[in-house]
Design goal:
Shape: elongated
Structural class: alpha+beta
Largest sheet: 8 strands, antiparallel
Number of domains: 2
Distance between the termini: 46 Å
Number of strands: 22
Radius of gyration: 24 Å
CATH class of the largest domain: Mainly Beta
CATH architecture of the largest domain: Sandwich
Length: about 425
């Protein structure tokens, strides 16, 4: 069994109670505080670390790292909070707000910094998040990668009277029993008196994220307008087989340009998919289908026609994908490539394309080789239907129908970390 911290239920014990946890001080370049005992929280419990508040209170520069997984979708969940429990609003808090990562510092009611991502981390998976603060600004990180940055900066020393320190809740005079309780598991929480660089943050992460996923998160969290190019064949084109409903690029556009709020409505999502296209066609038309739009992110879903085209076997397909990924990266600004596998087809209607599983496999291998983001729709469709092709998601046995396109969109939204069960796009019911 794993060792676990002694938990306190709200109102059940004084904050000064010493816990049987593994919180300890360190010297040199190591953490000032490192609580490494996993703790399960049920939404009413917390771990009291107040004996260590005095060591953190003077810090003007540093790093907070928390590794956790959630078990519910709460509006507000504290990961780590230091506060003055005698006043209403003096605290420094790293928390989740509707699944988004939020960092705030308040002093006697004055908000010194309050920043939040659009990307979300309440999906039940293990995440390691961090905040780093120095004179140059504040940066939020996930999986070792920067996902948000601002020139604003405040840290523990900017909030006076910090005597309460806890995992899983915030405490102030207006909420003597605590607030913003966490539901989930906090595996570790640590604080340094210096800024950890990216390699150090990656090393602190049991499940590091791809650098490209961090770049996409930064684009999603930035207020600077970005252009997304979604290209491929008839599946991306989305014509006819959606029966008048939105295609997956249109669902993505609605999620980004509307539901993520202003100023993301200044982003642009361009669908340059062409029915009948192959990976060779995409290479030949790369200038007009990708380069012309000066993209920040380029999504490529291709392969459904390659398997049925002479001369486009697996190894040519592999080489073409490598060429496409590298061509994207070579564009001005080094846009981020995203590879999305084709969906499976009805073997009874399309026996000649049953081998698409091998094309999906090759795409995954290319993504791994090129350190690119890979969204595996092929295996997602099968795993969601007991290993069988979900015919209800197909219009003609090959092209996704309106339900299939929504399924693709939700997988894309989840993998790019902007899923929200309260979103109209994410929760859409297609009859």
């Amino acid at each position: 069994m794993r060792r676990r911290s002694v938990l306190l239920a709200a109102g059940a014990a004084a904050l000064g109670t010493q816990l049987g946890s593994r919180a300890f001080a360190a010297t040199g370049s190591g953490p000032v505080l490192d609580h490494g005992t996993s703790v399960d929280l049920d939404g009413s419990q917390y771990v009291d670390l107040s004996d260590h508040a005095a060591a953190l209170a003077p810090l003007t520069t540093g790093t907070i790292v928390v590794t956790f997984r959630t078990t519910s979708h709460n509006q507000a969940m504290t990961l780590l909070s230091a506060s003055d429990p005698t006043v209403p609003s003096s605290n420094i808090t790293l928390n989740l707000s509707g699944g988004a990562l939020q960092f705030s510092v308040r002093n006697k009611g004055a908000v010194l910094i309050n920043v939040m991502t659009r990307t979300r981390y309440d999906d039940g998976r293990l995440h390691t998040v961090a905040v780093t603060v120095d004179a140059s600004g504040t940066r939020l990180h996930a999986g070792g990668r920067t996902v948000f940055e601002t020139s604003q900066h405040s840290f523990f020393a900017n909030s006076s009277g910090l005597t309460a320190l806890a995992l899983g809740r915030n405490l102030d005079s207006d909420h003597p029993g605590g607030e913003w309780f966490c539901t989930g598991t906090i595996e570790r929480a640590a604080v340094w008196d210096r800024v950890l660089d990216e390699s150090e943050l990656v090393a602190q992460s049991p499940r590091p994220e791809l650098a490209d996923l961090g770049r996409i998160s930064t684009i999603l969290n930035s207020d600077t307008p970005a252009t997304w190019v979604v290209t491929g064949d008839s599946i991306t084109h989305g014509a006819l087989h959606t029966n008048g409903w939105r295609s997956y690029p249109e669902h993505w556009m609605e999620r980004v340009r509307w539901e993520l709020g202003k100023p993301k409505n200044r982003d642009f999502v361009i669908d340059s998919g062409v029915s009948g296209a192959t990976s060779a066609d995409l290479i030949a038309g790369f200038g007009e289908r990708v380069t012309a739009f000066s993209p920040k992110v380029v999504s490529i879903m291709i392969g459904t026609n390659d398997i049925a085209t002479s001369g486009l076997g697996l190894e040519v397909y592999r080489a073409n994908l490598v060429s496409l990924v590298r061509s994207v990266r070579a564009l001005p600004g080094s846009p981020v490539p995203v590879l999305q596998s084709p969906n499976p087809v009805d073997p009874a209607k399309w026996p000649g394309r049953v081998g698409l599983s091998q094309y999906a496999r090759v795409m995954g291998e290319v993504a791994a080789q090129e350190n690119a983001v890979f969204i595996d729709h092929y295996n997602d469709w099968l795993s969601s239907n007991d290993g069988k092709v979900p015919l209800s998601l197909l219009n003609d046995g090959l092209h996704p129908n309106e339900r299939g396109h929504h399924h693709i969109a939700v997988k894309m939204i989840k993998d790019l970390q902007v899923f929200d069960s309260d979103s109209r796009v994410c929760s859409l019911l297609v009859p």
